[in-house]
Amino acid sequence: MNNETNTSPGKNVLVEDYNNNYKEIFKQTPDFINNIRQTSFKEFDLSGLPSKKDENYKYTNIEAAFLGAYKRQFSKQKLTIDVNEVFKCDVPELDNYLVLVNGWFYEKEKLLTKYNNGAIIGSLIEASKQYPEIVKKYYGKNLTKQKNSLSSLNMAFAQDGLFVYLPKNIIINEPIQLINLIVATEELMVQPYNLIIAEENSSANIVICDHSLNPQSFLLNSTFEVIANKNSKLEIYRQQNAHDHSVQITNTFISQKENSFVNSVNITLNGGTVRNNLYVELNEPHAINKSYALWLADKNQHFDNNVHVHHLSPECESFQLYKGIVDNSSTGIFSGKILVDKKAQKTLAFQSNKNLLLTNDAKVRSKPQLEIYADDVKCSHGSATGQLDEDAMFYLRSRGISKKESCQLLMQAFADEVINKILLEPLRNEINNLVEKRLRGELSRCNRCKVNCGQ
């Protein structure tokens, strides 16, 4: 790569910050993580921030997103609020949750809990100290093939994050919920690293909710590493609901072994610039991955979803359904790739992107891709972008339903195909309610807290 690609003002600031503060950063974590930090920093320093010359970032200006005067917290800062007082979950069945504030856990009692069944849930930093043999076995191991410069940046500066360890044969019925909360009184960059490990025959539901309590600009660059071992089952749900001054980047890496099943649903309700990267590796036979996403963009919001599913073993299945509703002058991006190795015979893979444009100024760019080296497969992909169905609209209007309500019903029906993939009924009902409010223009980023802060 040339210097023009590797160097940008945003990158230079990050490199300087790391060099000036690495001692403070290293104080937070044991040596084996700090060694990974050093390797990741060197990788980031070499590659730099993705530019628009990179085909995967052609329509999203990540370099510009990093130009804010962001502060970084290299250690825990004193909180000026009681999180339990300002944030309440509206779903009683999900009222038992962990809270990550600006990338750090602030639990009053325990940062990490080991349950009677052997499951360990809580702070990743605390887990790296109490159970180093578990964390060291998995931390960063599945990112080497697909690691990008943004995840390298995250691993260099990584703060705290959610740690979930499910021992062999353990099934957890109660959802594990993480509230990833940004409370910023100044421009802030937050970089949590989360690690989810499901051992053989284990099962759990993971719920992640990204929220912000203040209108201040922030940049969230998060990484989720998910390991699904033999016969394990994971349901992963994520809701993104921040404000228009936010930049949200998620890097999710899922590695699956024999007969594992991972179902993930991502709902983006609000945000300024959102970039969601999903990398899936199906490493052993009969692994199944299903990925769904719904994004609702308006004003000048920019939502970009990038998916890469790699079939490395025979008789695996993958399914992708990504849908967007784009209004005003907003932009929606979908880039999805299914890569089937020569040895991955009898692969079943499906990819679909569907978008609704509500105005002439709204834009969608879609790039579904198949790259197949095996000769005994069933794979398909497709993309469709258009406006609300005129025949369906006429039918509803002829039944006495107003134009506004007809639009609402058609948009809700369009969104329901993804929402219905949320198998947790209380969460599905709540998301359905939030999407309905969002489509009516009634949902602001503040509706989940008691803080009366203006847009």
Folded structure, characterized:
The protein is an alpha/beta fold. The chain has one domain. Strand 4 and strand 5 form a beta hairpin. The radius of gyration is 21 Å and the shape is globular. The N terminus and C terminus are likely disordered.
Question: What can be said about this structure in brief?
Answer:
With 455 residues, this protein is an alpha/beta fold. Helices cover 24% and strands 37% of the residues. Strands 1, 4, 5, 6, 8, 9, 11, 13, 15, 17, 19 and 21 form a twelve-stranded mixed beta sheet that branches. A ten-stranded mixed beta sheet has the order 3-2-7-10-12-14-16-18-20-22, with helices on one face.
What does the average pLDDT come to?
Answer: 91
N-to-C terminal Cα separation, in Å? Answer: 42 Å
Name the poorly predicted regions: 1-5, 445-455
Structural class: alpha/beta
Helix content: 10-25%
Instruction: Work out the count of structural domains.
Output: 1
**Radius of gyration from the alpha-carbon trace, in angstroms:** 21 Å
Please give the number of β-strands: 22
Relative strand content: 35-45%
Number of helices: 11
Shape: globular
Main sheet specs = 12 strands, mixed
List the helices and strands and how they pair.
Layout: H1 3-6, H2 9-26, H3 31-47, H4 62-65, E1 71-72, H5 83-86, E2 97-101, E3 104-105, E4 112-114, E5 120-123, H6 124-130, H7 132-138, H8 149-157, E6 162-166, E7 176-182, E8 188-190, E9 193-198, E10 203-212, E11 218-228, E12 233-241, E13 246-256, E14 261-270, E15 273-282, E16 288-297, E17 302-311, E18 317-326, E19 331-340, E20 347-357, E21 363-372, E22 377-386, H9 390-398, H10 403-419, H11 425-439
Parallel strand pairs: 1-8, 2-7, 6-9, 7-10, 8-11, 9-11, 10-12, 11-13, 12-14, 13-15, 14-16, 15-17, 16-18, 17-19, 18-20, 19-21, 20-22
Antiparallel strand pairs: 2-3, 4-5, 5-6
Helix pairs in contact: 2-3, 3-8, 6-7, 9-10, 10-11
